[in-house]
Amino acid sequence: MTKDYELVGGKYTVRDVVPCYDVDSTLRIRPVAFMNIAQEMATRAAEPFGFGYDDLIKKDMAWVLSRMHFRFVDVPRWKEELVISTWHKGIVGPFFIRDFSVCGADGSTKVLGTSSWVVLDIKKRSMVRIADFVDMIPEDSACHEDALEKPAAKVMMPRTAQPRLAQSVKLGYSDIDLNAHTNNARYIHYATECFTCDEMCEMSVADVMITFNHETYAGEILDIYMVDTETDGLVDASGKPIVRSSIIEGKVGDQQVFCAKLMFVERR
């Protein structure tokens, strides 16, 4: 990702090109690639305002993603030039809200997203009260434009569902991030691995929602369960019918780590 950026009205914007390692065999960007982009954008966009990683780590704190919802309006392709923007919208309830938009060079909308964050005390491994860090957030740093109208909702496995065990993964070196726990994007990677390669390439991901509930660490076994849900009457943002909807849950033992919902349309 380019190091050059623009900062206007609270929006942090960069221009970049979709690289070959972020696309699948249909040349479309993978969901995990957007998660990686969003993570890096969130980290870098906080720095000019004084509440980035380096600022928080001095106080033994770190940003942790709690919920994410993103929507593919027009899936970006390999070599496409993109304009990627992020901005924070301040505090809503217990969360710090950050939105994202990805547009083509011609201004067409590609991806829209919203995310909910908390601050972690990295020594105690517990959440920091908003009152203990809110003074670090300049009042004039927020932008109240909505990429998606509502904050990311909590995703839950339906009580009546009977999910099947899709896979079990031993977490290792490639899963762990700079905060010494599993990187949030890895859960999207494992969620999409519950589908076959043909399924992922024959459909287009339209909507992704994920809730992160607990940390995991290298050496732990992540059991991933999956169930399909009803799609009757469901459409994407453009009105195209949803052809598949699945909920994927990751657990370590009996503890739920994450829960995601992926919805698909016919291949665009």
Note the main attributes of this structure:
4 helices, mainly beta, Thiol Ester Dehydrase, Chain A, 2 domains, single chain, about 270 residues
Helices and strands in order, then pairings?
Blueprint: E1 6-8, E2 11-17, H1 31-46, H2 53-57, E3 61-72, E4 81-92, E5 95-104, E6 109-121, E7 126-127, E8 164-170, H3 184-192, H4 197-202, E9 203-212, E10 221-229, E11 244-252, E12 255-266
Helix pairs in contact: 1-3
Tertiary shape: globular
Strand content: 35-45%
* CATH homologous superfamily annotation of the largest domain: Hotdog Thioesterase
* CATH class division of the largest domain: Alpha Beta
Question: Structural class per helix/strand content?
Answer: mainly beta
| CATH-defined architecture of the largest domain | Roll
Into which percent range does the helicity of residues fall?
A: 10-25%
User: Count of DSSP helices?
Assistant: 4
Overall average pLDDT:
95
Give a short account of the largest sheet.
Answer: 12 strands, antiparallel
Rg from alpha-carbon coordinates: 18 Å
Order of helices and strands: EEHHEEEEEEHHEEEE
How many runs of DSSP E, i.e. beta strands?
12
Description of the molecule:
The protein has 268 residues and is mostly beta strands. It has 2 domains: 1-153, Thiol Ester Dehydrase, Chain A; 154-268, Thiol Ester Dehydrase, Chain A (Roll), CATH 3.10.129. The chain contains 4 helices and 12 strands. Strands 1, 2, 3, 4, 5, 6, 7, 8, 9, 10, 11 and 12 form a 12-stranded antiparallel sheet that branches. Helix 1 (31-46) packs antiparallel against helix 3. The longest helix has 16 residues, at 31-46. It starts with 5 loop residues before the first strand and ends with a strand.
